[in-house]
Amino acid sequence: MNYPVWDIPFLGAGLVVAIIAIIHVLISHFAIGGGAFLFVAELWSNRQPDGERIRAWLHKYATFFLVYTTVFGAMTGVGIWFSIQLASPEGTSLLIHQYVFAWAIEWVMFLGELTVLYLYYYGWKTNSRRLQVWLAGLYFVIAWGSLFVINGILTFMLTPGGWTLENTDIVAGFFNPGYWPSLAIRTLVMFLVAGLGGLLIASRMEEEDALKERIVLFSSRWVLPAALLLPGLFYWYWTTLPVNTARLMAAGATGLGGGRLEVMTLFAVVTGVAGMLIVLGSLLFQARPKALTFSAALALFVVAQIGFLGGEFSREMARKPYVIYDTLYSNSVWKHKAAEPGYRDRSFLSLTRWDPDVVPLTPAHGEWAFRLQCASCHTRDGYRGIVPRTASWTALSGFKWLLTMDQQGVMPPFVGTAEDRAAISAYIQSLHGRTVSAAEILSQARAEEVSRSKSASAPTREVEP
Amino acid sequence: MDDSRRKPDSDGPVGSTEGTPAAVDIPDSRFAEIPPDAEKVLPPADSVAGKASRAFLRRVPIWPVIEFLSHKKVPRHKHSFWYTLGSMGLFFLIVQIVTGVLLMIYYSPSQPWSSVQRIVMEIPFGGLIRSIHHWSANLMLLALFVHLFSTFFMKAYRPPRELTWLTGLALLGTTMFLGFSGYLLPWDDLSFFATRVGISEIEKTPLLGTWVAGLVRGGPDVTVDTIGRFYPLHVVVLPLLLLGILGIHLFFVQVQGVSEPDSFRALTPEKKRYHRFFSEYLVNEIPIWMALTALLVALSALFPRVLAPEADPGAAAPEGIKPEWYFMVPFQMLKLFPGSLEFLGMALTGLIPLLFLVVPFVDRTVPADRRGRVVARLGVGFLAFLAGMTAWGILS
Amino acid sequence: MNMFVLATGLWDALPLPPPDPLGYPVPVELLRALSYLTLTLHFVALHFTLGGVMLWLWLRLRRPAHADGMSAYLGSGLTLGFSYLVTLGIPPLLFVQVMYGQLFYSSSVIIGAHWILVVPLLIVAYGLFYLHKLTRERHPAPQWVYMLFALLAMLTIGFFYVNNLTLMQAPERWMSIYHLRPNGQSLNLGDPTVLPRWLALLSPAPAVAGLGLILAGTVLRRWQQEDKGLAFQSLGFRSVLVSVAATGAFGAWFVSRIPQDVLTRVVEMPLLVPVSLAGAALLLVTALLAGLASRSRSLAVPIAAIVAAAGSLATLVALRDMLRLAWLRPHFTPDDVPVHAQWAMFFLFAATLVLGLVLVVWLTAVVTGNLARRYREAHS
What we know:
The structure holds three protein chains of three kinds. By secondary structure, chain A is mainly alpha-helical. Chain A has helices at residues 13-46, 51-87, 89-122, 129-158, 170-174, 179-202, 210-220, 224-240, 243-250, 263-287, 294-317, 335-338, 348-351, 363-373, 386-389, 395-401, 418-431, 438-463, and strands spanning 322-324, 328-329. Chain A has 18 helices and two strands. In chain A, α1 (13-46) packs antiparallel against α4 (129-158), α2 runs antiparallel to α3 (89-122) and α6 (179-202) packs antiparallel against α11 (294-317). Chain B is built from 15 helices and two strands. In chain B, strands 1-2 form a two-stranded antiparallel ribbon. The mean pLDDT of chain B is 87. Chain C is mainly alpha-helical. In chain C, α2 crosses α12 and α11 (272-293) runs antiparallel to α12 (300-328). The termini of chain C are far apart. Chains in contact: A-B, A-C. Chains A and B meet through α10 and α11 of A and α6 and α12 of B.
């Protein structure tokens, strides 16, 4: 309402966030888990007779790690920050102003982990064994610290816990109900991804190399903690989800309106399938470690990426209709304002700042009301497109439906007058190639109401002979 | 019955039990022998697995096949990844069969649209299975096209593998018809008009066009009778045909071995590295199938297959109706030759499969000679042409 | 979009969102101080990296004596320089969003399609620097292509930043630009200060990279590599001179394009004169010290030059913010925003920062000590 809407055709601002974020999470989890991997591998190599050869291999892992996590990981992390401020300035502003020092602390972690990583990598040949082990361990601890912080902000958005706009209890909001299960889940997933990274680098080794077998076995074991504990942890996470979200997910694969409501569940299924496949795949590699090829290891990495896609999509959709749960709707309408009596019946364009001066009930009215109230989530005929979703709409049915759009629990309540609804409905009809004037819709609606009220009072007359 | 066991004064066909001579170890011809090299590999004869495997081999004497398959190897070189493309096609085929059977449980050819709507809206995970079926079809065709071109560029069609190539082309054609026939079955706007447009293009073929189109359609227009033909085609006839040709195709691959590119052939024997198919190669192929599984589920979640409104044969065709991407090349080609030039367009389109068919008879030498190199370059150009036409068709 | 709508749009009330209801977490002076400090460090890293690329390309073009050595030095610093420029860029961006969020987000969305391109451009530049580092021995021929594209990427990023930050302070332009293209494909090209500001922003780059060369040259001379060290120092000094001249020229051009009413408000600011004088003085000192460095092998001189340069960058940062405040005065002052203090969080952050800095500085000293010793042993 206060900010302009970034109206990108076909993709939509939300999908831009999703694309950048999904690329980022795989890398960021690898970045932290990989630190633990390096630490444990350093310790392991110290106890092996061919420790030098193991460390030579570990250097290859570290090189891949360095370039992959800094170039692609850190930059896409910044990318998330850029994209969320474009997709939801109001929500981002709330998070920034509430948690600026949490983010500042996370930044200290970044500074620390980067510097320690460089010292570890560039000092590879000159640092003592002991220093290397310490640096690797320190890197992991600091990097995990950055997870500790961002996890609070991220889970706050879905389950703000005891935080409200009135009391702004930072600690209650940060250590919210979803915080601890999410932290545990992400930590185990990080170890899993680190192991997959190890398999990727190990697959390049010569098959005849006896060391390959030991490194493949070492790497595939990192999948084990996740394999054993994630189902239980996911159940714990499930119990902390908002009631509405849990209800929607449990409704499962059937749904209303073209089957879109089951998408959240579907993405959770994607994650489950990917997780099982990774466990099976790692078992396969344990059976024939020397035969491992690069394409096979890469295939498992792709499965991990798909698993993240499912999990993150599902988690983001779980917040519907909010961007900050119970506080700010996804289209930047404040919940407490929408709950005020009379607020939602005001002219929508009088509440926003970014609309041009439009004449009411013109096509421009409909276009701008759509853009500023709906376009933050819906493109026209692209991602989550409004055109396929309104295929069965008539001008009148759409006009009426808008009043009920929050009833399914995935959309905010409509803000605006009957004129706004008529204008938006006419605009949507125009997207289907049908020209209807908003004024016509209004008069149709009024006529219908009049006849309905007449027929409601009619029976008393008919009783008279 | 062995005569030596029968006493002269036997009581009957089975033989009496009195005074049988000392037992002689004569092999019973009801059972086959276990070959000595099998004995070396099988589990110990007193274990459960050992007894079971020996009992099986005595009754089903396939040890020569097993022995043959255990030698099956796949060359390892920097283009080895392309060997997985064929099996990707096989994987998607299996997915199609499984999801197809599941869809068949609820699909009704006499109520096509409402049964599909029920699948998508009511049946638990029905929408997911349907979306997977749709995506697997598209990815299968993509994998097969990539497989076609990768085998082309690796020159795997050269003698003795001409029949492998030809059966492969037949498989591709059959799969495309499977796609075409399945597309109509939901009987929504999109599928109805796309099928109608597609068959009307066939109708334009001179001489036989009208007759073939009528045969395919079951009448002058696309109606429920067309579903009556497409449905058995899609679920019985074409799958059986496909499996039969696939059997021949795979038989050839097993018997002739995996083809080796020229650069690999030129290596000295010590430098040639192979993976044994059973276990080493499979261990690497299964994760790729896993990635494809995850991809299918993800695509179904991200881009679920939408069911358009029920087909209304009386209505006008939606604007810009197009076939699926794998038919885009003939569609675009025919659009380029309107009116009286239609015949030329058709002839050129018909030339495309013909060119593929003759390749193994044109480029036969191992290692590749000048003609082989020309064929490869023409192939690059042809690939660019096909890809460009497809892209043009999709975007326009 | 018909003219009637556009025309009436010009007389609309400004679409200025209100400041965030949560207000400032600490007094604005503290926020400002933190943002100046971190932005200065960001500029040091930025200019070191950007200048490094510029000088690398210049060396490739002219190939003076010891060009290979200088290129190797500059080239190896790029990945680290880029990493720290991005890392040090985070706090100032954070503080700008805290202090001016309602303005910054609005302008970001208006130029959204370009703003988001910063992210892939960052990946391109960073990736190219690693590509350079990992392949420069084996494949020297295409390196200049990588460097050129990295330079273009960095220049483009800077250009998008300048567009965003100039648009941020001009709410009267927002409506018309947004209504023309709600998909974020606009820029702020109608503002005459954009081009000179961008050029003035880039100009200090050769100076900072040059100071890095001078420092390296001094170290080389201390390690008995006299000719090479002198070449480093000489090129470094010349870069500083060119850079200072360019910054002055583009800076003057920039000031000349500032609207009169804004200039009037800037001139009224109490700290303007002392800060500007300090900046000019530090700039002079930097140039002098850069020239002096070639006459000695003392490390104190180049280090003092770097500190002076950082100081003059700091004054530039302060002047920049004063300009922004003056520009925004008709629409917004940070004094209007209430402070809802989060002192506990602030002190937690401060403690973490101190701890973190101590840790990394100590460890860096240890490791670079090892590395330096190794280098000396290898080259003596």
